[in-house]
Write a structure and sequence with these properties.
The structure holds 2 protein chains of 2 kinds. By secondary structure, chain A is of the alpha/beta class. In chain A, the strands form 4 sheets. Chain A has a 6-stranded mixed sheet with strand order 10-11-12-7-13-14, with helices on both faces. In chain A, strands 6-5-8-9 form a 4-stranded antiparallel sheet, covered by helices on one side. In chain A, α9 packs across α10. Chain A is built from 23 helices and 14 strands. Chain B is mainly α. Chain B has a single domain, classed as Orthogonal Bundle (ABC transporter involved in vitamin B12 uptake, BtuC), CATH 1.10.3470. In chain B, 73% of the residues lie in helices and 3% in strands. Chain B has a two-stranded antiparallel ribbon with strand order 1-2. Chain B is globular and about 60 Å long. The chains are: A alpha/beta, B mainly alpha.
């Protein structure tokens, strides 16, 4: 009996480790090979405090977690800049350094480790000694439950949504105004603290620490448990850890082989599991996005629908008509309501750019460039390929550091601010290649962009849950309104990866609108779009000034520019060489020649 | 001083074998983008086959070594064809993570299967070099085994052959083309999958050669590939993922040399902790001072397309 209770205790500790790693691997998409070492840190801190200072279980586990948390924060900053393969290298180096230091520092007992006291002090909580495994089982279950709750709360919330965004495309998420550094640091801090707590629990269960308790094989076991269970959902690591823990008793009790050989066979099977799951069921036993509630709902068709497969043909009432003349779009919008373009607010500029300069190596990509965006109008930046238009976007939004010049948004100097600061101050850009988060639904992509979400703040998430929930409901409504605005309300629950390109472009418009920014920079909004979708997209852009938006578009299709823009800047070789209406510009023979090439 | 010079000489031999392994790993990783951690299996497999054939079957060493190399190449091919390729086709998450975890799993399977089938005790490769092995070369106060000198020469000879093949044959040009841009190579009629397979064969052969030599110098153990693979990985990081063969080899030599020599300066007890701490700091600092937003481009910080491809030509 005690054997099985002990097995259960081991399973609970593996669950703790797996939950912790899943937060990092599954949600934030970062690999760590240092998880066992972080556990060692927690375990050694806890037992050191017990042996030398007489600390009990609870303060030990808390301080162990705190020590691991500090290390987590330290690695979070370089982790963001590293390619994933070198993240593996860095975490192996860190983990090995921690374990090697434990071996080297003599008070820690070298390879034999040391106990919680001399003789070993039993684990106790609130004055009760927990001598039997069954007593510890309750405590471990409670700790695992707390960690599960933390993972579930963080992962399945607006905070987790941002993490899943970062997992796929950190640049795009940052451009929407999210402080990506903060999210990364928090994710690393929490996952490390949890690993530290798990390590401390493991040490207190054995009443001893030794380096072998946290070696490379333990790391592999944790990884296998997470992959087997399924990444990116809170239930996966629990299922994976339990399934893996069942292996051991099955082996030791029912297979009669030499124990040494058995040990190797068990490891071989772990390897086979790891390779097999990734090869044949990459989503693991519990796929991402599944929850108990949804599982029940799927059994009763009236309930919540699972994402992705609910879309029916004909959900979308107005499909843009094929081959429509795009200039018709403008007439339709202008006649339906008074067009802001006709009555600009005189004299006010949303954005003023002066003396912008940037070189790449010896190439002067942008040179003494300046332009204004009149408020509530659509302005276009055109020019031949390689003129530096996208570079201008990158410089103005802070995605690239500028060498000279100034950028003023509504009169405030925003020169040199980071892209997320610029976005939060009210200027957001779209990307030529849309850069949506493919493994999220259309609705989630738009909700991701909504600013000031209490659910993205860890403290509100845990201490003001009602506020977070109410905001989330409102955010969903707002996101649906933007989807309606671009005509995608029927596709809200479709995974972005399953959308056509035109629909993705529209989703990306809804997404930047959801940021609430007043100045929108659209990079080639009409490129790669077939005519069927073009009209709808132009209609959406033309309606933006009515919403109080100031728009700058970079576009190659001059017909599109003519339809949309009141003012056009012509850019060549890194400078603005002309501005005015389309008619003004292309009345000049030289500009047409630069743009189209000389016609003989 | 003699002690120091002696460790330098040892470091040069270790470094030469590591140079070979770094080139093998760097070539596969840089060209195919597969993080082939399981190259350790080819490394160990070649040595194991050579040991079994020479010890248990009494096969002459050259034939046994050839068989070992063939097994190494086959292992590489099988892993690419039956693990990496299908996994990439199905991966739901980031491709790197799937490949790395697959690779890790394969190493675990191979190591433990070897232990189950052949036992955990080490094997020695025999075959008549006991005579050369005992032969020492003395230059002043420094002495080293003649066999080590032979190994260093073999390693650099192989590196030179690879360098020549990559630069002066059409086969090498197609590898470089695919490394620079797989999509464009397809357009000009090179099949990237075919090239990947060749790179896996080449890399596995080089790793196998390094494994056999390591097996002769030490002994053949199931996990003998783990530590060298780690150092090769470090060296590939130092060199930069898309480096040319010479740069990989030199980085491997330097890392191997540094690993040997560092024991002179630090106490034995603290040496591993210091080495790993320095490595951690080096990676962290390089990440922080590296190109702003390097990772953000979608290509990794170090896997940037570089001018190096042209420079080789």
């Amino acid at each position: 009996m005690e054997y099985y209770v002990n097995t259960l205790n081991q399973a609970l500790i593996l669950i703790m480790f797996a939950l912790s790693l899943n937060l990092l691997m599954g949600y934030a998409g970062q690999l760590s090979m240092a998880h066992a070492a972080l556990g060692a840190l927690g375990g050694y801190v806890a037992v050191y405090l017990a042996y030398y200072h007489g600390y009990g279980f609870l303060p030990g586990i808390l301080l162990g977690a705190a020590a691991a948390l500090v290390v987590g924060i330290i690695i979070s900053i370089p982790a963001m800049r590293l390619a994933p393969e070198y993240m593996v290298l860095m975490t192996i180096a860190l983990g090995s350094a921690i374990v090697a230091a434990i071996y080297a520092y003599t008070p820690l007992g070298g390879s034999r480790g040391f106990a919680t006291g001399k003789p070993p002090v039993p684990m106790s909580l609130f004055g009760i000694d927990l001598v039997s495994p069954a007593q510890r089982l309750l405590v471990f279950a409670a700790i695992a439950a707390v960690l599960f709750a933390v993972c579930w709360r963080l992962g399945e919330s607006p905070f987790g949504r941002v993490l899943k965004g970062l997992r796929e495309d950190a640049v795009a998420v940052r451009a929407l105004g999210k402080n990506t550094i903060r999210f990364n640091v928090i994710a690393f801090a929490v996952t490390s603290a949890m690993a530290g707590a798990a390590g401390a629990t493991l040490a207190w269960d054995a009443l001893i620490v030794a380096p072998t308790m946290y070696n490379f094989s333990i790391n592999t076991t944790i990884i296998t448990a997470v992959v087997l269970g399924g990444l990116g959902n809170p239930l996966g690591p629990v299922v994976g850890a339990v399934a893996l823990s069942l292996f051991r008793p099955l082996f030791e009790r029912f297979v009669h082989l030499d124990l040494g050989i058995l040990h190797f066979i068990r490891w071989m099977l772990y390897g086979v599991l790891l390779v097999g799951v990734i090869r044949f069921r990459p989503q693991g036993l519990v796929p991402e996005g599944s929850s108990i509630r949804r599982w029940f709902a799927n059994r009763h068709p009236t309930g919540l629908n699972s994402a992705g497969d609910t879309h029916k043909e004909g959900d979308r009432p107005k499909e843009p008509s094929f081959g429509a003349d795009i200039s018709g779009a403008r007439d339709a919008v202008v006649s339906s309501s008074e067009h802001a373009k006709e009555a600009p607010i005189p004299g006010q500029n949303a954005l003023e750019v002066r003396g912008l300069a940037k070189s790449f190596g010896g190439l002067r990509a942008v040179n003494d460039l300046g332009f204004d965006l009149p408020a509530h109008q659509i302005t276009a930046l055109i020019g031949p390929n390689g003129a530096g238009k996208t570079t201008v976007f990158n410089l103005v939004t802070g995605a690239l550091p500028l060498e000279d010049g100034s950028v003023h948004l509504w009169g405030n100097d925003i020169t040199g601010l980071t892209p997320d600061r610029v976005a939060r101050l009210g200027m957001v850009r779209s990307f030529q290649d849309v850069r949506l988060i493919h493994r999220m639904t259309v609705l989630q992509n738009v909700m991701l962009a909504i600013p000031h979400q209490p659910g993205e703040d860890v403290l509100s998430l845990f201490f003001r849950p009602r506020q977070a929930r109410r905001f989330e409901e409102r955010a969903q409504e707002t996101a649906r309104e933007y989807l309606e605005f671009v005509g995608l309300e029927g596709k809200a629950d479709v995974l972005v990866g399953n959308l056509g390109y035109g629909e993705q472009k529209l989703t990306s418009f809804a997404r930047i609108l959801a940021t609430g920014a007043e100045v929108l920079l659209l990079d080639e909004p009409a490129s790669g779009i077939d005519r069927a979708w073009l009209e709808g997209i132009l209609e959406v852009i033309l309606r933006l000034p009515q919403l109080g938006k100031t728009v700058l578009i970079v576009e190659h299709n001059l017909e599109v520019v003519r339809t949309l823009a009141t003012k056009v800047y012509f850019m060549e070789q890194g400078r603005i060489t002309a501005s005015g209406t389309m008619e003004d510009l292309f009345g000049q023979e030289r500009l047409s020649e630069v743009y189209f090439g000389r016609i003989h | 001083m003699e002690v120091f010079l002696q460790t330098v000489v040892n470091g040069l031999v270790n470094g030469s074998l590591l140079a070979l392994l770094t080139l093998a790993f760097g070539l596969v990783n840089g060209t195919t983008g597969r993080f082939h951690w399981a190259m350790a299996v080819s490394f160990m497999g070649a040595a194991l086959v050579t040991a079994l054939l020479t010890v248990k079957a009494g096969v002459a060493f050259p034939i046994a070594a050839l068989a070992g190399l063939i097994v190494a190449a086959l292992l590489g091919m099988v892993i690419e064809a039956f693990a990496y390729r299908p996994v990439l086709a199905r991966a739901t998450g980031p491709a790197f993570m799937s490949i790395f975890l697959t690779s890790l799993g394969i190493v675990i399977i191979a190591e433990n299967a070897t232990r189950v089938v052949f036992g955990s005790a080490g094997y020695f490769i025999t075959g008549g070099f006991q005579k050369i092995q005992s032969l020492g070369i003395h230059i002043g106060d420094i002495s080293f085994a003649a066999l080590d000198a032979v190994f260093a020469l073999v390693a650099w000879g192989l590196i030179a052959i690879v360098w020549g093949a990559l630069n002066f044959t059409s086969w090498g040009r197609s590898i470089r083309a695919v490394r620079a841009n797989p999509t464009m190579s397809r357009v000009v009629g090179i099949d990237p999958d075919g090239v990947y397979m060749w790179v896996f064969i080449l890399g596995s052969l080089l790793a196998g050669a390094a494994g056999i030599m390591t097996g002769i110098r030490q002994s053949v153990l199931a996990d003998m590939g783990t530590a060298p693979m780690f150092y090769a990985f470090v060296a590939a990081f130092v060199a930069g993922s898309q480096s040319g063969p010479i740069r990989f080899a030199v980085a491997g030599l330097l890392v191997g040399l540094l690993a040997s020599v560092s024991t002179n300066w630090i106490s034995i007890a603290w040496a591993p902790a210091m080495v790993f701490a320095v490595l951690f700091l080096y990676i962290a600092i390089r990440a922080l001072v590296g190109a702003r937003g390097g990772r953000a481009t979608g290509r990794s910080a170090v896997r940037r397309p570089t001018r190096r491809v042209e420079r080789e030509g």
